[in-house]
Write a structure and sequence with these properties.
This is LysR family transcriptional regulator. It is built from eleven helices and twelve strands. By secondary structure, the chain is α/β, with parallel strands linked by helices.
C-alpha cells in the first residue's frame, strides 16, 4: 500500500486556498512559510499531480488542485468528527459541538439553550459562533462549524435541515403612533419613510418584508441598522416603526420602552427557524437531540 498523504499537508493546502497567500497561510498554521511550501510540494509528489501553478510572484490553483481541496476538506472534517466521536466514547450528547447562529436569533435563544444543555447534558462542550448567514454557511462548508441555527427560507447550499419552529413578526412602534391604528396594521396608514429595517446583509430584512407583505417601498426609511436593539431605539424615539420577531419580544427586547407590538399585514407574517448540518455528517443523532432542545424554546415549535 502506498504511503497516504498526511492530514497536516492537507491542512496546509486548505489554509493556502483560504488565505490565497503563503505567508498568511503559514501564520494561520503556526509554521514557517518554507514548512508550508514544502508540505504542499510533498503532497503534490504523493498525489502525482500539480496542485498549484507557481511563479516568483504569484500562484494559482489548478483544476485538479481545486478538486483536491474539496476532497481534503471532506477528509479533515470527517477526521475531526471521528475525533469528537472517540472523545465522547460514542455518546450522543457528549464532547465538543461547534454551533453557529445569526445575530437576530442568538441573543434571544442561546442563553436559554446553553442553560438547558448544561443542565441536561453537562458533558456536552458547546462552542458558539455568531455571524451572518452567508459567513456561517461558509464555515459549515469548510468544517469549522458542525451545525447552524438559521432563519428560513434561505438557500442552504445542499445541506440538510430540521424545521424547528415558526417565529412571528410584530410591527413595533411608539404607543403614541399606534393609538389610531387597527390590527392587522395597514401600511397605507403609516407615513412615508416610517419603517426602519436592518442592513441587507441580515436575512431578517428580506424575510420581514416578504412575510409581512410590505410592497410599498416608499414606507421604508433609507436608514438601516446593524442590530435589532438599534431598531428598537429608533422606534422608541418616536421616529417610526420596525419589524421585531416574537422571540426577541419574549426575551424582553422592549422592556423599559414605550413601544407596543402590533400584528402586521401578511397571511403568515413570520420566519421559520431551522437547524442546518452537512449531509455527510455522522452526528445526526446529536443534531436531532439538539433540534428537540431548541424547538422547545421557540414561540411556535414545529419539529416533527
Amino acid at each position: 500500500m502506498s504511503k497516504l498523504p498526511s492530514l497536516k499537508n492537507l491542512s496546509y493546502l486548505l489554509a493556502l486556498h483560504e488565505h490565497q497567500n503563503f505567508n498568511r497561510a503559514a501564520q494561520a498554521c503556526n509554521v514557517s512559510q518554507s514548512t508550508l511550501s514544502s508540505g504542499i510540494q510533498n503532497l503534490e509528489e504523493q498525489l502525482g499531480c500539480q496542485l498549484i501553478e507557481r511563479d516568483h510572484k504569484s500562484f494559482l490553483f489548478t483544476g485538479m488542485g481545486e478538486e483536491v481541496v474539496k476532497q481534503a476538506r471532506n477528509i479533515l472534517t470527517s477526521t475531526e468528527e471521528l475525533l469528537y466521536f472517540a472523545q465522547s466514547q460514542g455518546k450522543t450528547m457528549e464532547g465538543p459541538l461547534r454551533l453557529g447562529c445569526i445575530p437576530t436569533i442568538a441573543p434571544f435563544l442561546l442563553g436559554d439553550l446553553t442553560k438547558k444543555l448544561q443542565r441536561e447534558y453537562p458533558n456536552l462542550q458547546l462552542n458558539i459562533r455568531e455571524d451572518t448567514t452567508s459567513s456561517l454557511l461558509n464555515l459549515l462548508r469548510n468544517g469549522e462549524l458542525d451545525v447552524l441555527v438559521l432563519a428560513l427560507p434561505f438557500d442552504v447550499q445542499g445541506n440538510q435541515s430540521y424545521l424547528l419552529g415558526r417565529d412571528p413578526f410584530k410591527l413595533v412602534m411608539h404607543k403614541s403612533l399606534a393609538e389610531n391604528l387597527q390590527e392587522p396594521v395597514q401600511y397605507n396608514r403609516l407615513p412615508d419613510n416610517s419603517i426602519f429595517l436592518l442592513e441587507k446583509e441580515h436575512c431578517l430584512t428580506g424575510h420581514a418584508v416578504a412575510a409581512c407583505e410590505l410592497a410599498d417601498s416608499s414606507k421604508i426609511n433609507p436608514f438601516t441598522a446593524t442590530s435589532l436593539h438599534s431598531l428598537v431605539q429608533m422606534a422608541d424615539a418616536g421616529l417610526g416603526a420596525t419589524f421585531i420577531p416574537q422571540m426577541a419580544i419574549e426575551r424582553g427586547i422592549l422592556n423599559g420602552t414605550d413601544l407596543v407590538a402590533l400584528t402586521p399585514t401578511g397571511q403568515q407574517a413570520s420566519r421559520d427557524i431551522g437547524l442546518i448540518y452537512r449531509p455527510t455528517t455522522n452526528r445526526r443523532q446529536t443534531f436531532r437531540r439538539l433540534a428537540e432542545c431548541i424547538a422547545g424554546l421557540l414561540p411556535e415549535p414545529l419539529l416533527n
